[in-house]
Design goal:
The chain is mainly alpha-helical and 134 residues long. The chain is 64% helix and 3% strand. Helix 2 packs across helix 5. The radius of gyration is 13 Å and the shape is globular.
């Protein structure tokens, strides 16, 4: 299994995610549009190839915090930063680390769950990450 460059997250696993990423996942669950909306913004912002690789069954394409920051509308990043009490660039770097593995794990068959199924899956992953915190 290959590691997602610079993130500590292995493709197809959440073993590299820790409690420090739980806030990012929680903010995703609470943000307007949720994960689906965020992925839509990333696609529109020029990262459609990367997003497709995370959802698909092949290797995950890494992204940088700078790429994520440039692709997302400022109000989306600022909203998440406000909820987390951190700087917007910290949100962008956290998303760059979390999203490839997170989306990959949510879409093992090559498609994301929709609606409440997606929200439930995110909640389950959040519980798993917090449970590993120890």
């Amino acid at each position: 299994m290959s590691s997602i460059e610079g993130s500590g997250v292995e493709a197809g696993s959440l073993s590299g995610l820790g409690a420090r990423h739980a806030g990012i996942i929680q903010a995703l669950m609470e943000s307007q549009g949720g994960l689906g909306g965020l992925l839509g913004h990333l696609r529109k912002g020029g990262l459609s190839g990367a997003v497709a690789s995370w959802i698909g069954t092949g290797a995950n394409q890494p992204v940088t915090g700078e790429q994520v920051h440039a692709a997302l509308p400022p109000e989306v990043v600022n909203q998440m930063a406000g909820k987390l009490g951190i700087e917007p660039m910290q949100v962008s770097h956290g998303l760059a680390q979390v999203l490839p593995g997170l989306v990959d794990n949510l879409s093992p068959s090559g498609s994301l769950p929709q609606g409440s199924a997606l929200h439930g899956a995110l909640g389950g992953l959040l519980g798993t990450i917090l449970g590993k915190k120890g």
